Amino acid sequence: MSQVSWCWMLLVLAPGCDRVFGLTELSPPVDAATSDANLDANLDNCPSGYAPIVGGATRYRFVTELQNWEFAHDDCANDTSVAITHLVEFDDQAELDAVRAAFPVLAPWEAWVGYARDLAGDPHVFHGTTGVLLPLGSPVWAGGEPDNSAGDEVVTFFGNNFDVVDGPRPTPYRYVCECDGVAGDRVFTF
Fold first, then answer.
1. pLDDT tens per residue across span 144-178
2. What DSSP designation does 99 have?
3. What's the pLDDT at 122?
4. pLDDT (tens digit per residue) in 47-94
5. What is the CATH classification number for the domain harbouring 48?
6. Partner of 177 at 20 to 30 A CA spacing, among 4, 37, 43, 86?
7. CB-based contacts of 172: which residues, under 8 Å, 6+ apart?
8. Which residue, among 186, 66, 47, has the nearest Cα to 118 in the 3D structure?
9. Which of helix, strand or coil describes residue 19?
10. What DSSP state is assigned to residue 169?
11. Cα(130)–Cα(135) distance, rounded to whole angstroms?
């Protein structure tokens, strides 16, 4: 193998390259606080308005009132004092499909998702409230997304007939709150 090939392989396998090239699936950081036993105990603490859905990984609350992203973000976060509720963060395509199928509004509709660009950090990386990254190339992004086509597309939403896309914050959409037992308190700087 040539020296150039070895250098390229090291570059691809180096820490952080997975995000640059979109090689990872969504995965929350693993630590003792999010063990299965702790997660189950935290789901028992979910507010009464949150319910499981067929094919969903956690518990959800669907809001059909139109709001901007910040309002939706705060509304979900304020459902518990232990910060285990937030705008939905999809673990994979199956969860996105399950949430879409359970949405209580007839098509067409769009709904906010809990990922945003933090412009105080890397403006090309989407973070979730709980710290989960939505990497470029993730299967939950719609084709060609994120594209920042309006120039201020720093938050995310999905619809009845499309996967996650980036968009501007002031647009009013419905939203989905999630109670997954993972505490999150990320403050975004737009």
1. 999 999 889 999 999 999 999 999 999 999 999 99
2. H
3. 85
4. 999 999 999 989 999 999 999 999 999 999 999 988 899 999 999 999
5. 3.10.100.10
6. 37
7. 66, 67, 68
8. 186
9. helix
10. T
11. 14
61 contacts 50 by C-beta, under 8 angstroms: yes
Per-residue tokens: 31: 């630590």
The tokens for 123 are: 């403006």
Asked whether residue 65 is assigned to any structural domain, the reply reads yes
Cα of 53 vs its chain's centroid, Å: 17
Amino acid identity at 178: E
User: 167 lies in a domain?
Assistant: yes
When divided into structural domains, the chain yields a total of: 1
Range of the domain at 171: 24-179
Token output for 87: 């705008």
Closest CA to 176 of 54, 69, 30: 69
Structure tokens at 120: 């105080």
Give how far Cα 41 sits from Cα of 6, 80, 84, 103, 179, Å: 47, 14, 11, 26, 12
- Predicted confidence at residue 3, as pLDDT, reads 43
- Global confidence as pTM: 0.79
Asked whether residue 93 is assigned to any structural domain, the reply reads yes
Q: Is-contact 86 97, C-beta < 8 A?
A: no
pLDDT value for 28: 40
